[in-house]
């Protein structure tokens, strides 16, 4: 990969610092979600969690990944199980925010939404490390 999840999140943070209108708030939400997706994907690839019965190209890649993380079949109490499920939960929250931000033009996206998406993405990056 020529860019990292941390670099994408840093770009989202720069955008957040300069954000003054709804278009820039939407940009922050989208980039934060992208950073979280790539961090969660790297975690998934490192841990080789759950064999996939479906190729990511057959479905929305982000939903596929969230499902893989959520359905990890390790031993209960295993740290990877808890971490994987936590990442799935956070990723799904961000995907919902991103869908509203990118596709629901009748929904208002505020600075609070941008700040929250950035903070959630940072948690995903920290947890996936």
Describe the protein's topology:
Layout: H1 5-18, H2 22-47, H3 61-70, H4 79-103, H5 111-128
Explain what the structure shows:
The chain is mostly helical and 129 residues long. It has one domain. The chain is built from five helices and no strands. It is elongated and about 45 Å long.
Rg: 15 Å
- The proportion of strand residues reads under 5%
| Helix percentage range | over 70%
Q: How many domain regions?
A: 1
Structural class: mainly alpha
Number of H- or I-type helical stretches: 5
Q: Count of DSSP E strands? A: 0
Structural shape:
elongated
Task: Name the assembly state.
Answer: single chain
Taking pLDDT < 50 over at least 5 consecutive residues as the criterion, the unreliable ranges are none
> Secondary-structure element order, as H and E?
HHHHH
How far apart, in Å, are the first and last alpha carbons?
16 Å
The biggest sheet amounts to: none
What do the pLDDT scores average to?
87
What distinguishing features does this structure have?
129 residues, mainly alpha, 72% helix
Kindly summarize this structure in a few lines.
With 129 residues, the chain is an all-alpha fold. The chain has five helices and no strands.
């Amino acid at each position: 990969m020529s860019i990292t999840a941390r670099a994408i999140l840093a770009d989202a943070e720069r955008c957040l610092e300069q954000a003054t209108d709804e278009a820039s708030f939407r940009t922050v939400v989208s980039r934060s979600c992208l950073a979280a997706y790539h961090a969660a994907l790297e975690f998934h690839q490192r841990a080789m969690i759950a064999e996939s019965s479906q190729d990511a190209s057959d479905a929305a890649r982000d939903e596929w990944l969230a499902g893989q993380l959520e359905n990890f079949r390790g031993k209960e109490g295993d740290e990877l199980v808890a971490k994987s499920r936590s990442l799935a939960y956070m990723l799904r929250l961000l995907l919902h925010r991103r869908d509203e931000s990118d596709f629901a033009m009748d929904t208002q996206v505020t600075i609070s939404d941008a700040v929250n998406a950035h903070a959630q993405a940072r948690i995903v990056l920290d947890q996936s490390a």
